[in-house]
Amino acid sequence: MIATRPRTHRRRGLAVVTLLLAAFLTVGIQLTRLGLKGTTAIRSDPVETVTRNVARPDIIDRNGRLLATDIALPSLFADPRRVLDKDEVVEKLAGVLPGIDQRGLLSGLNDKTRRFVWIKRGMTPAEAAKVHDLGLPGLSFRDELRRVYPAGEDAGHVLGFVDVDNRGAGGIERYIDAQNLFDLTDGAGRSDRPPLALSLDLAVQHSLHAELEQAIGDYHAAAAAGLVLDVQTGEVLADVSLPDYAAGNAAASLESNRLDRIEGGTFELGSVFKTITLAMAEDAGVLKPDKTYDTSLPLQVGAFSIDDFHPTRRQLTAEEVFLHSSNIGAAMMAEDVGETRMHAFFDRLGLTTPLTTELGRAALPQLPQRWGKLSTMTMSYGHGIAVAPLQFAAAAAGLVLGGRVQPTFLKPASSAKAGGALVAATTGDFLRLLMRHNVTNPEGTGKRAAVPGYDVGGKTGTADIPGKGGYGHQGVLSSFLAVWPIRQPRYLSYIMIWAPQATEADKGQTAAGLTAAPVTARVISRISPLLGLAPVFGDGL
Amino acid sequence: MRLSRTDRSLLAQWWFTVDRQLCAAILILIAVGFMLSLAASPAVAQHKGLGTLYFVKRHAIFAIAAIPVLLAISFLQPAQIRRVSLILFVTMLALMTYVLWTGPEINGARRWVFIAGQQLQPSELMKPAFVILSAWLLTQSAHRPDMPALPLALGLYLISAVALVLQPDIGQTTLITLVWAALFFLTGQPLRRMAILAAAATVAIGTAYATLPHVQSRIDRFLNPAAGDTYQMDRARQSIIEGGLFGRGPGEGQLKMALPDAHTDYVLAVIAEEYGTLACLALIGLFGFIVFRALSRSWNQPDLFLRHAAMGLSLLFAIQMLINVGVSAGLLPSKGMTLPFVSYGGSSMMGVAVSMGLLLAVTRRRPVQVARQEADAIDDLRGPDCNAMAVN
Prior knowledge:
heterodimer; A: 541 residues; alpha+beta; Penicillin-binding protein 2a (Domain 2); Beta-lactamase; 5-stranded mixed sheet; 5-stranded antiparallel sheet; 16 helices; 20% strand; B: mainly alpha; 2 strands; 73% helix; 2% strand
């Protein structure tokens, strides 16, 4: 007989209930275990790109004129999942936005795993209105900050450019990023940081730009560059390298001919280096009042022969060596100073170590592999050594001032005279006198740089441009170093013209005295009033 | 309206005999289930390109329709219960057979029939009827060896199991097997018979594993997660962990965006992610209250059919819930089992409403004379020794 007694029912009922309870407990414990493991910390899986705008501070010149600012512009994007007809979208957009990458857009819209595809970053409100009026579903706009340069035509190399995300990628824009002077914002709100004031003076910059463009036209030159430095503070007031590019034009910056010749390239600068040689010789005490240098014959150094550009073929005093820009005389002075002392002097001037400014590290100086006798001699007239023009200008400013000058692109200058005394005060006086005589003396190579009332002192440099197979086929690099007023040095300019052609403007000669010197005179007479420098008429030094 | 105990109306009798706490708990569960379904349904509906509130609206309609079904069934008397169950079972079994030939294949299974534009899963409505009939036949077999009740009970089980396996629906097969085995055990069948059946079941499962790739893949995946795609299970488990005890907050969950079954099979994981595991434990507590309330209520039930019917229905309800939660919590292989009243699904909702209506009906308090009357009626079939026990 089958068990039917209540006791059996109860026992079996109890067994089932016990099992059921155990099952409930197991599930409950498992859930509790998982719950205790968990953190309530929010972990987000963003389904679309989070836009973060890079809000950059405005950039202004030393007088507060706006050089760069952010504006909010609509950017177009698509949600591929909401796009109904990809081909229609591509076709219609191409009609409104010419030059759009149709193939790339189509492949982006085909990717259904994405919810966000940029179509065009930063467009004019008029363009945006046209796209909006197409009425295509799945497209949308988002305001983004874009960088604009209201006065960027004249200062592209200094201002630089930003990338598509408004991050600095060149020039002072990269400096802003390196120094973390930008803000990441979710909306398209502008930065509330104070504007970044540059040392540049927009008026001076524009004048220099215009004069250099003029010079390229006058002399059919390949390129031209120039800078104006406040020698007291090291502030760069103007910095032009032609051909240049408008600020923000990253594509043009990549063309090799548009490189920044002031900081980004090194050049053999030629006879302007004699300012260094004379100062070095004076500082080393090898210039005796009655000492003369025999330039009647080219100087033979081994198989190498050093000759003058404007041969005088006679005994020259130290000053005459400078005025006539005698390579023979300069080489003899360098030989008197000696290799060791010359190396040490160049070290002190900072010509042998990399120069770093807010724009980054300047091109590294190219120095002779060993400082032999021949090297010292060629370097005395600016060959066999190639430096960035800004580095040379800073060294020259240091010599006339007597202390080291660190160039800067910011105002106020982060560091004025960085180092202590560079040379004896008398050496500076001596050099300024030479430079002034070079302009005032009718025989001086720099006489065409004279500007009445501004006491200009300076030195020419005409260097053969090296090319394949040696010098002499690429033309010359004509440059002029000027300091004014020479009695109380305030400003220094350094103007360079690459490969000027013999034209009517330079009386058929391409030497610096007939090209770079008159351009310098025009620049000085144009910018000095802008800088608030009043002319002083009277006797010179 | 005031009801008096002297009132002999159907409503008054119902009011004083039904387990009002159990009834209230079921109604609360329906309401809570609707509220919790809001967590997952809108996201899934959007994902499937339906209106945001498509599932919510339909869930509401089913939930509201479930209440009269539940209450109407709870009015049934034991004899009516058996009759209704038999009709329901035969109808649904017929539909299930029909579906095997004509039904559309959805997710690799044929379990849906379309009636007047509405989808119906007959197996959901078959389950409660199956439990009632099994409880009756097994109870009879224990007490009336002269009747072929046991072979009938076995036949009932086999025909249901085969119908479900052919769909194939291994989850429901497991569910009815467990409930039928529990009833077999509860009705006092000899342990020897149980051993024979267990051995047969083992052979059957082995055969299913060997012949049905669907089953094989599911079992393999559970035993060796690296072997197959366990994305839904892993994701559900991860969401429960990320929800922690208190959840991320309503609407903050990510799981509902990721799983196509977030509103049905994995609704518990969605709830855990948004409201926390403590909320899940409370929900399971509510289920537990219903189940153990019904069990304790039927514990001393003198009518063995009612006792076993109540226990069978409670187990059906409890095991379905436990399997669903067990899958979400990573304890069991993926089964495709709904969480009663919480998961979206019209057939499931109706099936559970019928189950709970029957549970309310079989747990109604029966005054001694009613019980005696019925016991007398059964006595005619049963013999005197059983009568003594029934009055007990």
